[in-house]
């Protein structure tokens, strides 16, 4: 749908409304349709067209121009803008314009929905976490502790690499990395599950956490 399809334009406001959403009369580049509309406007409003083109040449000086007062005729024209129904560039009626505008709106909504669907759902938000697991003492079976930790399976949880870090008096804590989907895994619940292994685990702490 383009403005060049209209056979009549009811008002300048209608043309302005069309151009607020379109850079050109038809398509995405200047065409004969733009020239046709411009010539029709220029023919019906030659003085206004000349004035607009002339004043546009001073656009960089607008802030430094001297003060002035608009003539009474200009004020009256501005007051009557809402009632301007006499611009006859082509020829059509309100019903056709509304129908075509609605078609354009529905077409754009459909295109937007198609693009959104093509992108697919957003990837799940994930975090990488470093967890410290402290044993009771230096006699705790660390391999069993590790096996019990990794035996915990939760949807959205992936266990990663681990290491043993000395904490003093011959005791080593387990430091293990994991990746979680934020909406599926609660770190508080996970720590509680690990600490239920009371024979091996004294406590757990989140050593580090960052979003992927």
Automatic annotation (TrEMBL):
It comes from the Eukaryota. Belongs to the EF-1-beta/EF-1-delta family. Residues 89-116 form the Elongation factor 1 beta central acidic region eukaryote domain. Residues 180-207 form a coiled coil. PANTHER family: EF-HAND AND COILED-COIL DOMAIN-CONTAINING FAMILY MEMBER (PTHR11595), ELONGATION FACTOR 1-BETA (PTHR11595:SF21). Keywords: Coiled coil, Elongation factor, Protein biosynthesis. This is CYFA0S31e00694g1_1. GO terms for molecular function: guanyl-nucleotide exchange factor activity; translation elongation factor activity. Gene3D superfamilies: 1.20.1050.130, 3.30.70.60. One of its GO terms (cellular component) is cytosol. Residues 126-212 form the Translation elongation factor EF1B beta/delta subunit guanine nucleotide exchange domain. SMART domains: EF-1_beta_acid (SM01182), EF1_GNE (SM00888).
